[in-house]
Amino acid sequence: MKIRPKISRREFVGSTLSAAAMQSLYVQPFLRTKVEGSPSDPGWKDEGILFVDRSPHAKLRNVPVHAVTITEGFWGARRETNLKKSIPSMEKLLEANGRMNNYLRLRGKSDSQQSGPVYSDSDVYKWTEAVGFQLQSGDPPELRALAEKIIRGIVAVQEPNGYLNTYYVADRAKQRMTPETQRWGHELYNIGHMIQGAIAYYRATGDRTLLDAGIRFVDDYLLASFGPGTDKQPLFSGHPEIELALVELYRTTGDQRHLELAGYILQGDDRIKVPRHAYVYHFCGIPFTSRTHLEGHAVRAMYACCGATDYYMETGDQKYWKTLDVLWNDLVSSQMYVTGGVGARSDGEAFGDSYELPNFTAYGESCAAIGNMMWNWRMLAATGDAKYADVIERALYNGINSGMSLDGTLYCYRNPLSFDPAGGDQIRNPWYDTTCCPPNLERIFASLPGYLYSTSKDGLYLHLYENSQLDWHLEDGTGLKVEQKTSYPWDGAVEIGVTPAKSTEFTFYLRIPEWCNSAQVAVNGKSVSGVTPGQYLALRRRWSPRDAIHLKFGMTPQVIEANRRVVDDYGRVAVQRGPLVYCLEQLDQPQGISLYDVSLDLREDSSSAFHVEFDKDLLGGIVVLRHAGAWAEKTSSDGKLYRKYTPTAAKGRQVELKFIPYYAWANRAATPMQVWTPTFRA
Amino acid sequence: MKIRPKISRREFVGSTLSAAAMQSLYVQPFLRTKVEGSPSDPGWKDEGILFVDRSPHAKLRNVPVHAVTITEGFWGARRETNLKKSIPSMEKLLEANGRMNNYLRLRGKSDSQQSGPVYSDSDVYKWTEAVGFQLQSGDPPELRALAEKIIRGIVAVQEPNGYLNTYYVADRAKQRMTPETQRWGHELYNIGHMIQGAIAYYRATGDRTLLDAGIRFVDDYLLASFGPGTDKQPLFSGHPEIELALVELYRTTGDQRHLELAGYILQGDDRIKVPRHAYVYHFCGIPFTSRTHLEGHAVRAMYACCGATDYYMETGDQKYWKTLDVLWNDLVSSQMYVTGGVGARSDGEAFGDSYELPNFTAYGESCAAIGNMMWNWRMLAATGDAKYADVIERALYNGINSGMSLDGTLYCYRNPLSFDPAGGDQIRNPWYDTTCCPPNLERIFASLPGYLYSTSKDGLYLHLYENSQLDWHLEDGTGLKVEQKTSYPWDGAVEIGVTPAKSTEFTFYLRIPEWCNSAQVAVNGKSVSGVTPGQYLALRRRWSPRDAIHLKFGMTPQVIEANRRVVDDYGRVAVQRGPLVYCLEQLDQPQGISLYDVSLDLREDSSSAFHVEFDKDLLGGIVVLRHAGAWAEKTSSDGKLYRKYTPTAAKGRQVELKFIPYYAWANRAATPMQVWTPTFRA
Fold it and tell me: Does the pLDDT of residue A651 top 90, yes or no?
């Protein structure tokens, strides 16, 4: 087992050090050698997305990003684009839009005015986090040099008392941490992202510069003046994020105060009287454990749930678990789009009522789907329950993946499930003044290798199928390599090579996705029974080098209907194949046909089969689905809003409908799109 | 023809008179004799809801409210409740909530603070208008005495310069008519309602007190300092209403400046740079004739359209007509609920995008449906085209009528088409702090007799069927009585007795509703051909006393489907019988059944007929409809948000569904309701 001392702040940060002096503390040279998973390696290198190795109530440990190599597969291509296009172009846009100047001007190195909204610093930090994860996977020196320069610029403007923010300066300094600013000013949100970015960068490089700045903010500024004591001012996080960052900081520093501060914020301080509309929208300010359903701003709610799950993993507080379980059931039973997106309403970027899941006006912010994935990743770490991995897969392949264009330079803020460009919306854009989503997508794709596996006391969990190599070890220290060969998600066959450093008995937990109708598993050619969709198949045996597992998931396209309470989906179905939700884009259908007028022909006597075909030239290579449909010729455009019902009106002419994966929509000419397609009414 | 001098302001208002002195000008004693329609009667008595007798571009003239007596029918009962319960109880609530004190305190007769939002005065004025219309129909002396006292209290606080408002006084006086206050302060909106109320009261009683105050505001305050001149300040109406009031004032005073001011406001003043979001929301500030679709705040848009139609009827400006036609087509082809309600979004109380007509979250404010009816009444006056009367009937019987409880004391602000009390909404309330809807409903029901008929150069138009007596005259002065005997809308038979003072050739235009499948018309027992739904049937002949028309509209319940672009209605149907849209309330269905799980069985091989039955004991006496349905047993409550589509899942168990008219919903215990019911999928 890997044993190493926790970082103690006292060891390397003198609270009176200047920012410049602090930089000189950066003594760890950048080492990007091939990591063998050896316990003798510096500890920071082997911490995963979450460092829960010592968390008493985490069942699973994260595997570090560097331990998994993703190549030549579905996510390999996406990650390549992320590294080559998205991260560099976003840095240029952050520059061009003054976000970097916000730091420079505080050192007199830029004449420009403060740029962007109060949360603009966070976008720089999320970009830094993306770079951090990317550096964990490899070594693009120019990216590191760029990030290092930016980090030096950030920490240089930290004030002697630890405060760091480029908005609440000069005339605005007097607004710092006032009740109004705590509510809307995103000071703690910014620092939360800074800490996350700092940790990712630290785990990549050992460079503590940004991390130290985060610790100084927390220790010297926050803990000194804010908190539960009568001599201290109360805290309201405003936009949850600091909570999860503080727990991860605690995992990194071992400083109990960081965990306690997270717990205090999650509890809310009853010295602040928070009106209902505020604790609903902000999803903080009352005890997290008093929550009974998801509501309010979706990203805030998801980040709060992340923080609360992190807190649970450290404390085992059952009140937290009970609440998390209630909220999670609310999510999957009444609040989540079939794409894994969350947040139905544009108004307040908020959760709607139960079953309020409009398609056309769906908000489904990219950040909220990411928050959903992050939360479920934590729930999975706590329990090892496959139902959380199912949500991760659904969100990742669909509602998150849709957020970035295939070329990696355009982003969705909203991810609607139905769209008509006639409404005037430009759905993908290179930049938003509130540009939270683009760097958030970048950090997720950068961190993706860390989501494929976990370890447990008794073995290894495989969560996501992807062409990849794992080079890590079991929790007892036994080296273990696992290779996946697959064309997943286009094909349901996965060949898994298992190579422990020596023959060892352990359990290989293979996730059997809940969506699959049929799954065949064979170990060394011998079929395995007890395969159950929606569960991990526990293969307990003595594993030896060159053992092989063959998986075969049935990939027959599936037709899905929603609960009848989802009014927008009634009479409609969604099509899913493997983990991918499909959609119709009008430009793929025969000319002259409007999506408003088509139905999927699901009559039993019709040819109900999908035609499945991989088209390597379309949208980067996708499996296209074709199915018989009906075209109710121009009934939507005859100007009639209401008409007498005629049972045959919808039948119309026969037409073949062509479906593409939802994530790939809006990558060609602007055209109507829909996920939920009417079914044929006989 | 009725010929009388227009009121000239100069004749009876001295601009330097005090409010008290103005009251002494009230010299016309209240006369409530039986009006025979004689041209020698005081002109004010014979003006209809709109006085368009001299409007060059009005095809139809209004018939005064007093000329039509509604008794013992559908609307007779509603109007009785309005008079006995609604108007008196609303007056008490206006008192109890300080709206009357707002006037008293300005005279030192109340110590209370200003109460209510900036538009609170308008609620008093709308109540006054309701009383005015009610007084036009009869003579409840105690109601007149009460109104007179209130009116005296209002005019007593008018300032010497004509300004009148109970909110922008004292410290707030400096905010009067600032750009910000023009946008949000409702000063002109309040005065618009005051003028409407004043005119209704004047037409009932000849009492010019309130009317004079309105004229003073316009002449002495507005025209003196605001308008297009370089020496004047620009105007922005903020909440359209003043436009229609000014045109009606012009019709009453003959003062061309009142019409010109309306035109100026409808045009917008380009000295005010109105940002897009503002001219969308406020529906003013840019030339009305530049509008291409309905958008923004629905009541604002509807009142603006009313004012623009009024302006068109006076000017004949074809640019106005073109715009009105475009907007009207937008309304009926993509923006109107099947109930005649308008305004899809709670957010901004606004029109949605085309076809955005959600049922559960429908706003459908009572005031907006009223605005819709008022607008269509003007379009009908301009053209005599039955399509406008069809919209009036749809809105009146459904989306407006639903706004008041059957007992006349509770009101809907929102009129959703689907409801679940589990959401916590209290849909009917006696009072709203923004209490625009209750007195608006009261004034409409009070004015209803004025909507049944119009005259044209060549005869008489019958718009609405209702047990009633008309006692009026043709435009050539020939006396004419028309009696309708009917149980409409419960029954499709209408017996019409036509009694001209002498045998006269004229055209009797009978509206054949667009909803009817079949209509038989006979004059003196002889069947008439050429009956076309959605048109007026023109019966040109020499009419003599004791002539009789027999109408028989087919009342078979109809199943309606929406345009496929209305996502919320897809796979669902609405049920309509006659002009009444029906709904399901859960408490009428077999116990244990959730509305979420029922479907209407419309298979051709099923018994597709409705069972139609009048239940005199239910909800004041209604026709109940029963139809075979299916119950997909508890599929909505099994906790599953998405499931694999199975074509038989929705079939379920057979069940009988019971429909009641939509207007009568929410008059018993709180229970789920829906207008659009899923159809059975075979």
Answer: no
